[in-house]
C-alpha cells in the first residue's frame, strides 16, 4: 500500500470530516490532540518496557499498534491542511538529506561554482594565506598575505576585550575551500568575476560580502558559547537554517545544510590553531574541500 492510498482509506474513518456543526479549526485541534495523545501512549509503552523488562512481552505488538494510530492521526492532520502523505514524506526526505548528506565528498564531482569563468576569475583551487601579527596591545594588527601580496587591510578584534575575531578571515577561507563560495575571499585574493557585470554586482558585490561577514559574526557568537566548537561535531540546526536563509538568493544556495556544517567546523578547527599561535599559514584545497593549518617557519 502506498501512502496516498492509505490516506484515502483513512479519510473514510474520519468522523469529523465534512461535519457542519464543527468549525474547521476544531477539527484540526481534535486531530492534533489525537496525534499528541498517541505519541504519549507510545512513550508510556516504552516506560512499561523499562520498568517490567522481559515481563512486558507485548511491547512490540503495542508499538506496532501505536505507530498505526500515530500514522492515522498524521494522515488526518495532513488532510485538514490539504497535504498528502506522499508529499509530506518526499519533502521530509529532501530536508533530512539536505541536513545530513553532502552531494559528494570532492569538489570535482561536487561542482565548482566558477568553472565557466577565466582562470584569473576563479577561486584558486589551492591557496596559502599567511596570518602574521605586528605590534602589541591596542596597536596589535593582523596582516594577511598570499603569494607575497597583501590581502585586505590590517585587522584588530574591534572589541573592548580580546576574543580573537581579528583572525576571522579563516572562516571566509573555509567557506571558499569547502563550499567553493566566498565573496570576501574573492576580494582578498583578487579574483572577482568582473567579466560578468551581473555576477560581479550580485554574487561578488558589496551586499553578498556583507551577508558573508554577517554570517561569520553570527556563527562566531554561537561558537563562543560552545568553546569555539572544540570537540563539537554537530552545529545547531537553527543556526544552519538561518545561514541558508540568508544566502537563499545567492549561488551558494545549492550547498546543503550539511555542507555548511562541514565548512563551519573546518573553519573553527583552523581558527583555534591560528588564534592560539598568533598566526600561521592557512592552506585551502577546493578539490579536496579541506582547510588546514601549518605553523609559520
Structure description:
With 297 residues, this protein is of the alpha+beta class. It has eleven helices and five strands, in the order αααααβββααααααββ. It has helices at 3-11, 24-52, 59-80, 85-100, 107-110, 169-179, 183-188, 197-202, 206-224, 237-246, 257-277, and strands at 126-134, 141-146, 149-150, 279-285, 290-294. It has a five-stranded antiparallel beta sheet. A hairpin with a 6-residue loop joins strand 1 (126-134) and strand 2 (141-146). The longest helix has 29 residues, at 24-52. It is elongated, with a radius of gyration of 26 Å. The mean pLDDT is 89.
What are its keywords?
52% helix, Helix Hairpins, five-stranded antiparallel beta sheet, 5 strands, 2 domains, alpha+beta, elongated
Topology:
Layout: H1 3-11, H2 24-52, H3 59-80, H4 85-100, H5 107-110, E1 126-134, E2 141-146, E3 149-150, H6 169-179, H7 183-188, H8 197-202, H9 206-224, H10 237-246, H11 257-277, E4 279-285, E5 290-294
Antiparallel strand pairs: 1-2, 1-4, 2-3, 4-5
Helix pairs in contact: 1-3, 2-3, 6-11, 10-11
Amino acid at each position: 500500500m502506498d501512502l496516498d492510498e492509505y490516506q484515502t482509506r483513512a479519510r473514510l474513518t474520519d468522523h469529523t470530516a465534512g461535519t457542519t456543526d464543527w468549525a474547521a479549526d476544531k477539527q484540526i485541534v481534535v486531530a492534533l490532540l489525537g496525534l499528541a495523545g498517541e505519541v504519549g501512549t507510545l512513550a508510556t509503552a516504552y516506560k512499561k518496557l523499562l520498568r517490567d523488562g522481559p515481563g512486558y512481552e507485548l511491547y512490540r505488538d503495542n508499538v506496532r499498534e501505536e505507530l498505526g494510530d500515530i500514522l492515522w492521526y498524521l494522515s488526518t492532520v495532513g488532510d485538514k491542511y490539504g497535504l498528502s502523505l506522499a508529499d509530506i514524506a518526499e519533502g521530509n526526505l529532501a530536508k533530512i538529506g539536505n541536513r545530513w548528506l553532502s552531494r559528494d565528498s570532492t569538489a570535482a564531482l561536487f561542482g565548482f561554482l566558477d568553472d565557466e569563468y577565466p582562470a584569473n576569475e576563479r577561486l584558486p583551487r589551492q591557496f596559502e594565506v599567511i596570518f602574521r601579527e605586528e605590534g602589541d596591545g591596542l596597536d596589535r594588527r593582523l596582516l594577511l598575505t598570499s603569494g607575497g601580496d597583501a590581502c585586505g587591510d590590517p585587522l584588530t578584534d574591534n572589541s573592548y576585550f580580546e576574543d580573537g575575531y581579528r583572525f576571522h578571515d579563516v572562516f571566509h577561507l573555509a567557506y571558499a575551500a569547502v563550499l567553493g563560495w566566498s565573496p570576501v575571499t574573492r576580494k582578498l585574493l583578487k579574483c572577482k568575476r568582473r567579466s560578468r557585470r551581473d555576477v560581479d554586482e550580485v554574487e561578488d558585490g558589496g551586499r553578498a560580502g556583507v551577508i558573508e561577514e554577517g554570517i561569520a559574526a553570527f556563527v562566531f557568537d554561537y561558537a563562543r558559547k560552545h568553546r569555539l566548537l572544540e570537540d563539537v561535531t554537530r552545529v545547531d540546526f537553527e543556526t544552519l537554517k538561518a545561514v541558508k536563509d540568508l544566502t537563499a538568493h545567492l549561488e551558494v544556495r545549492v550547498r546543503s545544510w550539511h555542507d555548511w556544517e562541514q565548512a563551519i567546523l573546518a573553519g573553527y578547527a583552523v581558527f583555534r590553531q591560528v588564534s592560539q599561535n598568533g598566526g600561521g599559514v592557512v592552506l585551502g584545497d577546493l578539490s579536496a574541500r579541506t582547510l588546514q593549518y601549518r605553523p609559520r617557519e
